[in-house]
Predict the 3D structure of the following.
Amino acid sequence: MQNQIEHLKSSGSKLTKPRKRVLEILTELRKPVTLSEIHEKCGDIDFASVYRSIKLFTELRIVHEISWGDKVLRYEMMEDDHHHHIVCKKCGKIERLDLCILDKVQNMTSFKIESHSFEFVGICPECK
Amino acid sequence: MQNQIEHLKSSGSKLTKPRKRVLEILTELRKPVTLSEIHEKCGDIDFASVYRSIKLFTELRIVHEISWGDKVLRYEMMEDDHHHHIVCKKCGKIERLDLCILDKVQNMTSFKIESHSFEFVGICPECK
DNA sequence: TTTCTAATTGCAAGCTGTTTGCATTTAGAA
DNA sequence: TTCTAAATGCAAACAGCTTGCAATTAGAAA
């Protein structure tokens, strides 16, 4: 978490209680979570502060925004190893997917790709 | 469009004016569009009817729901050739991507995959 | 350590896209 | 043509996200 705090401060932003708490939660959970989920774990911190913290972190590329197509966005600490997810629609279990073909796609198009989603929803063995 | 109408009727649903219009629009546009976009092109049909038509079509697998992570869902007529998209974030231009590694991913996991997103957002050559 | 101020927060209201209940209308079977 | 379950239009509700503003606070400067 120290790197992220460094990065935050060097951008001219302050390390406030809400921001610290949000960082802690993301570091601890180590999986994509919604704003509400973060807010619930935050104690008495206001939802708007969680929202603004996450917005800032996303801009600073400290966290990564993920859409699973269910209208709620999720956020995950940005990690060194690029990865995606397979989610169980029943129990919510998350499996990491260490595979991505962004490079391949980038070579197929004249678009300069800036972001991509590559997410899978299904049923895990236990819920089957 | 005849196949879809067949399918609709054989499911016990009626071919109403709103439904027909929505099908026409989707067939004509042949790209992912939002509910509002469909509604605009619908004339005096109520938004709720567009919404319920699309919901039905999605259940019947006549249309396909797509998320580009911008909080608005888009819908596209389900086609025989499975494909994805690369979208320009500036002008909205859409490029088809006839590549998918669903099979490969399905072989890597014990989850039974039911749906997936594989969408790219970037800048097209003209907007660059 | 204390002072000071721009940055940040909490609150409450607002927004956007989606969803629903209900009285009225209508597709299409009889 | 009649009839009724299904579908519509309307209007209100909802969920998640976003913002303006007065009060608070991190942390630089004294």
User: Anything to note?
Assistant: Chain B has two domains: 2-77, 84-122.
